[in-house]
Structures are given as C-alpha cells and as structure tokens.
Design brief:
Layout: E1 18-21, E2 24-31, E3 36-42, E4 47-51, E5 56-70, E6 73-78, E7 82-85, E8 91-106, H1 110-113
Antiparallel strand pairs: 1-2, 2-3, 3-8, 4-8, 5-6, 5-7, 5-8
Length: about 110
C-alpha cells in the first residue's frame, strides 16, 4: 500500500520503499500539504548526493553514522543528532555505518509522491 495524503493511521508494514539512490531506500511515512516525514534506510557507503530544494528540512539520525555536508560545512553525526537545512542550502551525506535517517520537510515534497 502507498501512503495517501492526510492519512491518519499508517502501519509500518504497509509502507512501500523505493530506491532513492544506490544503497538508499526511501519510505514516505506520512504527509499533508504542509509537512512530510520520510524514512531513509542507508547501507554503509551509500551517498546522498549534494543537492538543494525549496523546502526546509530537519533530519534526525535514528541509527548509524554519517558524514554530512551542509552549506560547505562537514560534520560526523550519529544516533540522536539532528540537522536543520533551510530551503536552498546545498547538503548531502555519506553513510559511514549503516543506518536510518528520518527527514521532515515543510512543505511536503511533491516530487516524492509523483
């Protein structure tokens, strides 16, 4: 089952993942027009290429270890860390230890549901 906009209840087992990049699976968890939550499961060595978009994004590290580049500044992050990426700021990461990132976008990413 795919996630539907404004869906109130969603079981994790019903969420279908899609390949976002080599070694990265994207799973949309919930969304409205104003907000979206996306789980990204990374294999060790997978890369989230440098990019920017017109959405504000907060990323929470659920597990694993990542090297993030946000606006040209690089840092190593691990479980429990959070990063803010305002709209238009270039960012990307390399997965150093397999893990999961939870992304919150405002507004929602229309390109993820087309």
């Amino acid at each position: 089952m795919s996630v539907v906009k404004d869906q109130i209840w969603l079981s994790d087992k019903d969420v279908e993942g899609v390949a976002a990049a080599e070694g990265v699976e994207r799973r949309i968890k919930s969304y409205t027009d104003e907000l979206m939550v996306v789980e990204n499961v990374f294999q060790k060595g997978a890369v989230g290429s440098l990019h920017s978009h017109p959405h504000t994004q907060i990323t929470y590290v659920v597990s694993g270890k990542f090297e993030f580049n946000i606006g040209g500044e690089k840092r190593i992050v691990t479980a429990g860390d959070t990063m803010l990426k305002k709209n238009g700021i270039e960012h990307g990461c390399v997965c150093l230890e397999a893990g999961i990132l939870l992304d919150i976008f405002s507004p929602m990413r229309e390109d993820f549901v087309k």
